[in-house]
Design goal:
homodimer, 315 residues, Rossmann fold, six-stranded mixed beta sheet, 6 strands, deoxynucleoside kinase activity (chains A, B)
């Protein structure tokens, strides 16, 4: 079994490399084989029954899989299982969170936008829109602080075994901060200070996530969604910004950069309509909130072997 | 004894108030009485032998005393006794630190200026001088981070029982940050974010100091010292800046603001020449590094009662 897992992990890495090499075409049969293997691993199925996942390299593709990190590398020390829902604007993060809200042992946390709108009386989000170059540094610092607070918060209900977050402090570091630096809004000194803060936090505070659920979408699909849902703060959103953010998510979650991919990752096809997405959530429910459905109370380190078994992440 | 202590604490507070009330003249005999009482408390003497302390309200005064905080409110959890040396530019902080370097169980930490000069290649200190309004926010954020790292660092030698720091993260928050905000270099949003970071740190990390030694000086004296020592980076220093910094130190350390004065405080007359200062250090040696001289190894919480006795901070 271990040999098979090791072989699969190697193939998964090859596949990721192939996807990420521009212009390289991946053999269709190999794609399909790998996809089925990965589906079987994450769902625990032995047949070849397909899910709604579609894999189409060369354009904005969706991909279903889970990363090979050993889950027992994470020391949870009695805290709940932490899940971050990641994805572009319009990827369906809120809908996903709403789906999991119904479970009594799950607590969900939206993005702390209200805090960004009122920092002791100042609206940092508004300031950012008026002059991004002037305000991006302090805004990023505050996003880092507020995400740190959210992600390390104790659950309100002591029976909560799973915490689900809309985005994460890791997202802020590796997706939005990288994006602002690449685009030139953040200068190198601001970037370096924010990076050093992140390193300090990571080394001194348990900000570990136990699972990232990446709602992978194409910029075209989310652009249409954003236009049709007509939220006032998104009215000025440019298509190019969604393309940039998509690329930032891809670089963070789909690359082989060791700094980035040390968290178990479940990639779902976010281009599907809501009804199809809910079918995917149903399929992966046990992976995401398995602690709860199997009746495990507040997980601690002694529960890890049971949890691993429960989650079938035994590679 | 407890009643006497309580009475003395009340008088100390009255005296502080009197000193801080502009234009108010304090009765000379009361001053001298209080001064002697305070000297006796901190030195443990029962006679009225005077030290070099001089108290002269109405101009930049020096004042010798120690604050009434109960030392057992601090939970040190096995770490060394932490002392911060505070004071204006030219107050003699380096000389003080050099004095205590000689003790084998003391480790000393200068200000992390080299880090500020090289943040992954950028010289933040230089950038700050070129455009203070543009760079003060990220500079303050980095000072906060580097002081946090220094102040929570493990000693290199496992026999170290006392860590002595040149300034502190508390200084940064209550002296330099306040100063930058009052002077208008820091806007309210930057100030609020840095303040919220400080609050998070204070609530989540042990940054407690066990003693602050305040080398209290007059701006006139330190201005002369700074001019004569001729350090290149201090060549452009204005007298008014030293006055402002003096006031910031006074507001922080000599006020009755509860946010500020929760750390045991030893105030020494920093206007004296080096030879006189060294006499003061000799007198207060046991207060500052008593753990070492009494042969206490690495202090832990069970040592606290002994340490308290040793330090004679039993009020």
């Amino acid at each position: 079994m271990l040999k098979l897992i090791s072989e699969l992990n190697r193939k998964l890495i090859d596949l990721k490399k192939a996807i990420l090499t521009p212009g390289k075409r991946v053999h269709k049969q190999f794609q399909e084989d790998m996809e089925n293997v990965l589906i079987n691993i994450v769902t625990g199925k032995t047949n070849n029954e397909k899910t709604t996942s579609v894999f189409s390299p060369g354009k904005q593709s969706s991909f279903l899989g889970i990363s090979p990190l050993k889950i027992d590398e994470i020391n949870r020390e009695g805290r709940p299982f932490r899940v971050a829902i990641e994805g572009n604007i319009g990827a369906g993060k809120s809908t996903c969170i709403d789906y999991f809200k119904r479970f009594p042992s799950v607590e969900t946390y939206g993005e702390p936008i209200d805090w960004w709108r009122n920092v002791d009386g100042d609206n940092l989000l508004e300031l950012l829109y008026t002059d991004i170059d002037k305000w991006i540094s302090v805004f990023q610092s505050y996003v880092q602080l507020t995400r740190l607070k959210v992600q390390t918060s104790k659950p309100q209900n002591q029976n909560t075994t799973v915490q689900i977050f809309e985005r994460s402090i890791q997202n802020n570091r590796f997706c939005f901060l990288e994006h602002a630096y690449r685009k030139g809004s953040l200068n190198s000194a601001d970037y370096a200070v924010l990076d050093q803060w992140y390193r300090w936090i990571r080394s001194n505070v348990d900000i570990n996530l136990d699972l990232i659920v990446y709602l992978r979408t194409s910029p075209e699909v989310v652009y249409e969604r954003v236009k049709s849902r007509n939220r006032p703060e998104e009215s000025g959103l440019q298509f190019q910004y969604l393309v940039d953010l998509h690329e930032s998510h891809e670089k963070w979650l789909m690359s082989n950069d060791e700094r980035f991919n040390n968290i178990p990752l479940l990639v779902l096809d976010g281009n599907q309509p809501i009804s199809e997405m809910e079918k995917q959530y149903k399929i992966f429910e046990e992976k995401i909130i398995g602690h709860e459905t199997k009746g495990l109370k507040r997980a601690d380190s002694t529960d890890l072997s049971k949890a691993k078994k429960n989650l079938k992440m035994d590679f």
